[in-house]
Every structure is written in structure tokens, then in C-alpha cells.
Amino acid sequence: MNWDGAERLVRVAAGPATLEGTLSVPEEARGVVLFAHGSGSSRHSPRDRHVARLLNEAKLATLLVDLLTPDEEAIDLRTAHLRFDINLLAERLIRATDWLIQQADLRGLRIGYFGASTGAGAALVAAAERPQTVGAVVSRGGRPDLAGPALPHVLAPTLLIVGGNDFQVLEFNHVALAQLRCEKRLVIVPGATHLFEEPGALDEVARLAREWFDRYLASADTRVTERGRA
Q1: pTM of the entire predicted model
Q2: Domain boundaries, the chain
Q3: Across the chain, which distance is largest between two alpha carbons, in Å?
Q4: How far, in Å, are 30, 136, 137 from residue 215 at the CA level?
Q5: Which residues of the chain form beta strands (DSSP E)?
Q6: Residue 51 in contact with residue 202, Cβ under 8 Å?
Q7: Phi, psi of 194, deg, nearest 5
Q8: N or C: less crowded end of the chain, CB within 10 Å?
Q9: Closest of 136, 111, 105, 1 to residue 60, by C-alpha
Q10: pLDDT value at position 2?
């Protein structure tokens, strides 16, 4: 397929469920970042879409996928239960990862995870399950502590980004940081709250994520070239 950088709607088979996603592949992509949403969010999250656009500008492909089906989302809106089912979310993320690997136009690209809220916990569980596939993890205001016993088994370099005024989540991230055995870093964005709505806060998240993924995903020998796509 000849990618032109435009967003494309995709469907990902995840057992009995079918997940809907938005895939963007810039010219000469140097890696692909799979977004893991949580806490009632979806692939339409304006925050994650903003970060994804900036990653696309940096020649990183992105896949924003709904880890819950529309019916499951309706249930979760009433119960707020499924968003905390880390095993379910991680399994869906693994299925999406396997789907990416099977796409001929993305073959050879290293995969990274960008997790937000409870999606960050799922991303770390999935990274522990796919150590040879996942090359980096970034968490934005996430709950990495929810990965629990999987944390010491994560091999992918992991960046935790937390707002300086997001006090409870910051404590959760300190707990998770102590349990991670991979290369790791915790960055606090001064003055930012949980959703990074303050001026410049989300751009700082995107900058930090881009630098992390550039370091661990992007390399000259993993680029998708025009010849490779022909």
C-alpha cells in the first residue's frame, strides 16, 4: 500500500472482538507507536491525537486503537469496571501488536507503546509479554503500578511522565519506578495536572515522548522506504 501520511481507519481482530483504530504512516517512517487508552478514553482522545500528530511529524507511525468495543464502552460508562481490567486491556493490546507485525508495509519497524491512565498499566503488561517486539514504553499521567507483578519483567526502556500537580498519580508512579528493572526514567512536568491541560504541558509530553521513541525505536536500518512500499 502506498501510504501518503493520511489517517486510515483499520479493524483489528482480537479474539471474538473487533477493535477499531486509526493508523497514520508518514513517509519514511522510522518506527510505529501504538497508543493504549484507559479510564473511559478512546482513539478520539484530543490529547492523544495531538501527541500522535507530533509523532507523525517526527516520522513515527501511530496506531490509535479502541481497546474496548462500543458495547463494552457503554457498559464501562455505567460501571467504570472494564477500564481497570488490566489483563483484558493488555490482551487486546497484544492482539493489536501482533496485527501490526503482520502488516507488510510496516515490516521491520520497531514498535513502541504510549499509554495513558490505566492504559499505561496495560502497556507494561503487554511489553512484558512481548519483550522481543516492544522497543520502548512511554506513560502519560499513567497508572503503571497497575501492571503489578509484570513490572520487574519489562525489558523495554520506559519513560514515565507525570504532572507536578497530579499528586496521587505521582505517588503511584514512584511505586512503579522502584519495581521496574529496565532502563527507566520519571519526568515531572512542573505545574501540570492529570490531563496536562495547562499551556505548553501537552507539547512538553509530546517532546519527551518523541525523544524517547527516537532514541529507542528509530534507526536508519528500520525505515520503511518508498522502494519497500512499492
Answers
A1: 0.88
A2: 8-19+35-216
A3: 50
A4: 11, 9, 12
A5: 8-14, 17-24, 32-36, 61-65, 111-116, 134-140, 158-163, 184-189
A6: yes
A7: -60, -40
A8: C
A9: 111
A10: 46
Give the integer Cα–Cα distance in Å for 199 and 25.
28
For residue 183, the Cα-to-chain-centroid distance in whole angstroms is 17
Q: Cell 519489562, residue?
A: 154
Report the distance separating Cα 41 and Cα 54, nearest Å: 20
Separation between Cα atoms, residue 222 and residue 29, nearest integer Å: 9
Cell of 186: 520519571
pLDDT at 46: 77
Question: What's the one-letter identity of residue 190?
Answer: P
Distance of CA 144 to the CA centre of its chain: 12
pLDDT digits (tens, 9 = 90+) for 98-123: 999 999 888 889 999 999 989 999 99
- Interior CA angle at 8 toward 119 and 17, to 5°? 50
Query: What is the rounded distance in angstroms from the CA atom of residue 87 to the CA atom of residue 93?
Result: 10
Closest CA to 35 of 50, 14, 52: 52
Q: Are 160 and 143 in contact (CB under 8 A)?
A: no
Write the DSSP string, 65-115.
E-SS-HHHHHHHHHH--GGG-HHHHHHHHHHHHHHHHT-GGGTT--EEEEE
**Count of beta carbons in the 10 Å neighbourhood of residue 131:** 13
pLDDT in tens, 179-208: 999 999 999 999 999 999 999 999 999 999
Q: How far apart are CA 178 and CA 145, in angstroms?
A: 10
The CATH code of domain 8-19+35-216 reads 3.40.50.1820
Identify which has the larger pLDDT, 42 or 30: 30
